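DATA SHEET
Item: assembly model
Revision: 1
Owner: S.N.
Input lines:
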Amino acid sequence: KIAKIYLVLFPMHLNHIFNSFLVCPATEKHVKKYLHQEVFLVEESGEDYRNLTLPYISSQSFSVQWVHNILEKKAEADRIVFEDPDPDTGFVLFQLQDLYLIAIVHRRDVKSLRDLTSEHLPLLTNIRSKGEDAIQRQYGIPPRKLCMYLHYQPSYYHLHVHFTSLEFDAPGCRVERAHLLSDVIQNLQADSSYYRNCSLAFPLRADDGLLLRFKEAGKL
Amino acid sequence: KIAKIYLVLFPMHLNHIFNSFLVCPATEKHVKKYLHQEVFLVEESGEDYRNLTLPYISSQSFSVQWVHNILEKKAEADRIVFEDPDPDTGFVLFQLQDLYLIAIVHRRDVKSLRDLTSEHLPLLTNIRSKGEDAIQRQYGIPPRKLCMYLHYQPSYYHLHVHFTSLEFDAPGCRVERAHLLSDVIQNLQADSSYYRNCSLAFPLRADDGLLLRFKEAGKL
């Protein structure tokens, strides 16, 4: 295990690896493994999510302990740029790079975009407005120069929103993985179960366990 | 004017300029001009489109003669990979780079994503299925490794769909400009006027005439 290499698992963007940020420790072996993987675009219906993806996520019990540590200030508290402590609509704004932040919600019952309904609109609009304000104050970047989006599939199943400068060529802002916060809000305003029912396309590496589930079910 | 430099106008991706492809001739001055522009994210409601964007597009009368030349085989016919000649649902599949193609529709009455309604579903699903087939035959790339999307704002106001390999780090596939074809089809199936009414976010350079219109209207 080499001293401290951190690898971000954006399957599409390993040519941006020099841009990648700190999420989880990785060995040289990991780095190599992720460099040479084929990628497939999966289309997941709402039913596929319930029958394939949700059981897979649950069976893996991916740890989000490191997220809880951030929320509880047990780790990397110096990277917290802003906090709204409200248990329902609050979040921590966490700096990954100069122009790359994430809003991590305090609620622990929202795994991803798929769980969002109109019930979560106050949470999402709060993240948008207070996140924009905090970034303008802290970095002088006006809202019109910000890109705010969610990933699906996310790297970890605890709801978070990405904030990057429009002028920053962020990894992971590609259309097949990113969903603009403004679109998410708009779609939920029109239809509370939009993300429960819609088909969502996302890329998976050839060695991803979830891809195997889709293959076994004849969905690829 | 230098011999034949071609520049693609993806404001977000000038660090990808080495990847750019042939659309319209550019001088060295153009290249420099586009290298140093601030970029802003505009949110355009359906009303903004009708009041600001559509009059602007019309007043500029951007030429799409070069597109018509391709459709009529008067130019670059050797780059046509496939054609469906149907006047309503047909298109030309045109190769820009090895792993980057565009489907240009034969219809001349659809400017962009904003004009699409459920009336255009046969066109869009035809582009998807015949485009996928042609690319599989010609390049051996299966549909699951393809990314198909539309731009809004597009570079030119004649409907076209982008086809890239998932593994190709294409310029212009960023979430704030690209709309997955599968999402467009799905949204139109649920609501024929989805793209007439929704708000669409897109990036504009500081020197874009359209940005000035939004500024003058107090929308920025």
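QC remark: The longest strand of chain B covers residues 91-97.
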